[in-house]
Amino acid sequence: MSTVALVVHEHRPEAAALAREAATWLRDRHHDVRLPKTDAETVGLPEYGCPPEQLAEGLDLAVTLGGDGTILRAVSLVSRKGVPLLGVNLGRLGYLADLEPEGLTEALERVTSGDFAIEERMMLSVAIQRAGQPPMLSALGGDLWALNEAVIERPAAGHTVHVAVQVEGRFWTTYSADGLIVATPTGSTAYSFSAGGPIVSPNVRALIMTPVSAHISFDRSLVVDASDTVRIEVADRPATLVLDGRETTVLQRGDAILCTEAPGSARFVAFGPRDFYGILKSKFGVADR
Question: How many domains are contained in the chain?
């Protein structure tokens, strides 16, 4: 018997319907089912609701029903416990959620019988250092983790952020920009790419630092080793820290974040090699010849 969590896109009726079908299939085969409490109420399965902070306890698998955004939410809920994720794509072609809905039953059969492999993706660890204080860990008992990126950005239109950057303790430069992104290779196809950053294979372990609309002469991305520590300090007016699209905190002058590779990975169910370059070609309409 396995314990399976379903994480559901709240605005897609087809995701709710598929969640109910999956829950019935799993329960008929004597597997335990959980959903984050709000997801359970939204899709009409309140009996399976679970406080989000307890979702990963003793969990064998998390199934996401939505798209890459739903996967990012699931990663934040279960990645610290090493729970594997199976992403079902209910929107446009995604980089992470590539299983189509009609394949879910077969996929569940294979996973619950142990017929699958694991693909690991590097994650980003972010520690907050308040002005004049040592690094502060999050209230949940550890560094903040992100699969795609950490962003320090302006909290309101009409202003820029000014941030001083060190790499491995050595001063690099001060950026004046709309924001500064520190992305993983997985996140290189997300916000970092839209800001002009490079696409990096997920097999590479690196940090990609990309300014957003920089007002300095050096406005290109900088790629550093994943084990390096990137320290970004707010030089004057407040800035907002956003992790994987979720606003986390406001940083005041003198506050800093320290970014490096997280000690754990996001773990994804795989039934064969993921065709990263094929997905890229489909997303961007790259011709075969």
Answer: 2
Pairwise CA distance, residues 55 & 53, whole Å: 6
> Which of 184-188, 206-210, 277-281 is least confident?
277-281
d(CA 13, CA 222): 41
Domain hosting 61: range is 3-116+271-284
Secondary structure class of 67 (helix, strand, coil)? coil
Write out the catalytic residue numbers.
68
Do 243 and 150 meet the contact criterion of CB atoms below 8 Å apart?
Answer: yes
Share of the chain above pLDDT 70, in %: 97
Q: Where are the alpha helices (DSSP H) in the chain?
A: 13-28, 37-43, 68-78, 104-112, 191-194, 276-284
N-to-C CA span, the chain: 49
CATH code of the domain in which 203 resides: 2.60.200.30
The residue written with tokens 């950026």 in the block is 175
Closest CA to 23 of 46, 8, 6, 10: 6
The average confidence (pLDDT) of the chain is 92
